[in-house]
Amino acid sequence: xxxxxxxxxxxxxxxxxxxxxxxxxxxxxxxxxxxxxxxxxxxxxxxxxxxxxxxxxxxxxxxxxxxxxxxxxxxxxxxxxxxxxxxxxxxxxxxxxxxxxxxxxxxxxxxxxxxxxxxxxxxxxxxxxxxxxxxxxxxxxxxxxxxxxxxxxxxxxxxxxxxxxxxxxxxxxxxxxxxxxxxxxxxxxxxxxxxxxxxxxxxxxxxxxxxxxxxxxxxxxxxxxxxxxxxxxxxxxxxxxxxxxxxxxxxxxxxxxxxxxxxxxxxxxxxxxxxxxxxxxxxxxxxxxxxxxxxxxx
Length: 298
Hints:
The protein is mostly helical. The protein is about 70% helix and about 0% strand.
């Protein structure tokens, strides 16, 4: 596949690509390092957090309500407790699993749907491509959060419905990127050569287009995970996402906002969890993009 990679604008042959990876600048290495560390911690919290959490996330203990962060005593609360006496650290760890699970499932489904439609539209063109392009233009004109609020308000709130909302709102982003790249790739010499020797359209897509689109898909999926975390947290904050008592970072902010003046830790730590998760994922995405795109080297 070195011929196909060398033929794509903005890409170099495999030997030069290996050289580019060895000569990443300190800024890109820092992005990848910090982003990888934060993302790894996020994944570990989602996978093992509920098992290592010190308390029950749903247990109400009014005698422990609004306790500040403390490491002392027989029952320490490292990040404090909320207005119902629930341990904030425990709820943040449980919320990580809920948020990450929703994000990963939604991103995977959106990528599959968007990739299939984008490649088909960009490769075969015709009336189907025109229709898809107009649908994408119309949907991109609507703010994602407004579209999500509208769908959730009509069809109700549940985790499966949230995933459907994120897929409906997210597939167009993949279509736009994949279609544009496919329009370029289909005119490349290696694709024309494959057609000349009788290769079928399916084989051309599988053997030539998919490998050259892989980097764009990976980068976009990484960025979309962070975006969906923000949207899910926003919907939960507004009461339209995951419903209590199941904890998510967004509904923890919503429940604790009335106590911001008297118990800052109730909203500060869930907010920091959202910020660090999105920041780490976005920095990792920028680092990965710098590996594949020579224009991003610095």
